[in-house]
């Protein structure tokens, strides 16, 4: 094969590579880039099409600031608890001597549960922990414990937090399990030979190696909870003032209809989730270098 034919073959392969990735690029353009540009333009515009910063200034009104505060607290709480409980489950299945069928069952369930959200998840929790839910009635009739008489309410900050943990914990399991499997057995054996205890091994070797993965996953779980819309609306309606519900009211509501303020709220949400995802990507890259 001469040089000209080789060059033609390389150009053909290069063109085929771009052709293969074209559907993804088209999808990203239509459903990510263009909608984001539309939101940014709408956030800095008004009904007459003029440039304005009034929508951004309106984000600092007490009502919207409180909604962002509640959303950040909700996202951080569920992210931290999701990391803690998810890490314990992942450590048990990755490092423990559990049967293979149990490990596969937990992994499969985590893959399904991490994507189970919206109206189906809300209905499932209402049927389980609602006022006439299955668990609620069992606790009341069999054990004499009335959850709602004790102050519990599913349509509240606590109730929404419990609901979010249903998909936050499995997501943590899926992400951190490969990192735990990357811990080399030689490190534990070397630490044991040198007289280190199990606690010292985790404190001085395992956790420093896993720290970038843990922080990165925390950022990802925060972004995952902060951007959850359908679950919050289906479960609480308008009774809990969080950013996704306020955004829905501004764009689709009948009373608070102000699309450009809604664009500004969406722009702020995009900025926060973009920062969280950027932190996750950077820390994930660093963790992969450690585990190579």
TrEMBL record:
Print the keywords alphabetically: Cell membrane, Membrane, Transmembrane, Transmembrane helix, Transport
Kindly state one GO CC term assigned in the UniProt record: plasma membrane
Q: Name one GO biological process term.
A: transmembrane transport
Q: What membrane topology is given? A: Multi-pass membrane protein
Query: Does the keyword Cytoplasm belong to this entry?
Result: no
Question: Which residue ranges traverse the bilayer?
Answer: 15-34, 74-96, 116-139, 151-180, 200-222, 229-249, 261-283
Q: Name one Pfam family in it.
A: BPD_transp_1
User: Domain named ABC transmembrane type-1: which ranges?
Assistant: 68-282
Signal peptide positions on this chain: none
Task: Note the PROSITE patterns from the entry.
Answer: ABC_TM1
Subcellular location(s): the record lists: Cell membrane
Family indicated by similarity: Belongs to the binding-protein-dependent transport system permease family. CysTW subfamily.
The protein's name: Acriflavin resistance protein
Q: Which organism is it from?
A: Mesorhizobium atlanticum
């Amino acid at each position: 094969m001469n040089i000209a034919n080789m060059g033609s073959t390389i150009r053909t392969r290069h063109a085929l590579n771009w052709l293969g990735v074209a559907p993804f690029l088209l999808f990203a353009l239509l459903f990510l880039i263009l909608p984001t540009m539309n939101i940014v333009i709408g956030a800095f515009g008004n009904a007459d099409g003029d440039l304005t910063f009034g929508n951004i200034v309106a984000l600092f009104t007490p009502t919207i600031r409180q909604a962002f505060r509640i959303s950040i607290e909700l996202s951080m709480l569920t992210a931290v608890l999701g990391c803690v409980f998810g890490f314990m489950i992942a450590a048990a299945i990755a490092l423990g001597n559990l049967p293979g069928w149990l490990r596969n069952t937990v992994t499969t369930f985590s893959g399904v549960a991490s994507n189970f959200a919206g109206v189906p998840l809300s209905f499932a929790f209402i049927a389980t922990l609602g006022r006439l839910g299955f668990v609620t009635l069992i606790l009341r009739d069999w054990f004499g414990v009335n959850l709602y008489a004790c102050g519990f309410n599913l349509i509240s900050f606590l109730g929404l937090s419990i609901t979010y943990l249903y998909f936050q914990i499995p997501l943590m399991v899926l992400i951190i399990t490969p990192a735990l499997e990357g811990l080399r057995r030689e490190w534990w054996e070397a630490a044991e030979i040198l007289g280190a205890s199990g606690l010292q091994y985790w404190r001085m070797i395992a956790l420093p190696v896993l720290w970038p993965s843990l922080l990165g996953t925390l950022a990802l779980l925060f972004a995952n909870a902060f951007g959850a819309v359908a679950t919050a609306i289906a479960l609480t309606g308008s009774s809990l003032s969080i950013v996704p519900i306020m955004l829905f009211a501004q764009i689709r509501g009948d009373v608070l209809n102000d699309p450009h303020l809604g664009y500004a709220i969406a722009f702020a949400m995009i900025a926060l989730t973009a920062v969280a995802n950027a932190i996750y990507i950077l820390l994930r890259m660093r963790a992969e270098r450690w585990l190579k």
